[in-house]
Amino acid sequence: MKDRAMWQRCLAHPMPRGPEGESFAAWLAETARIRQGQAGDVILEYKRFTYLAASGAVARPQAPGLIGTALALHRQTEDFARYCRDVLRVAALPPERGDRAATLAGYEAEFGQAPPRFFWASRSRLPHWGLAGLLVAGGAVASVFDGSLAPLALGGIPALVIAVYLLTKGRMAGGGGLSGAARVGGGGGGTPGGGP
Question: CB count, 10 Å around CB of 11?
């Protein structure tokens, strides 16, 4: 690890409260539509991202998916400038758009494991909504030619299942995405929840 002292400061730093006084994890969970336990894991991964960005382990890091969401929320707080100054000891983090491949390689080099895909992947739901729309549209077209509503129902039922899945994704999924060992941060210790 390039800068173990910085990593320890990252782990020890409590995340700020949300705009309504809720914990950062609760704010992140509500914004990202994930479970609060998963939000705690995202906070740990966010701290890993900030470490990579500030330590120079990655020249132009990219904050994808949920990590980018955590970064965007943290930037909205007064704590962000203090986190950069006192914890990371940099004036500011580089822009969010960077080199994805270099970020993933830097993560593996610094933490001795590949980043958890759930937290570091892009979370676009557009393909799922497109599939649901195609099923309904296909059912509607078939209904016109068939003269009954049966094809529409057959297309609409899978579309409804997809829509329910998308609307509850993360809340119904089991597990927090990381094992207890992965939460420790490559032997660095700390708590994944980022404060109360």
Answer: 20
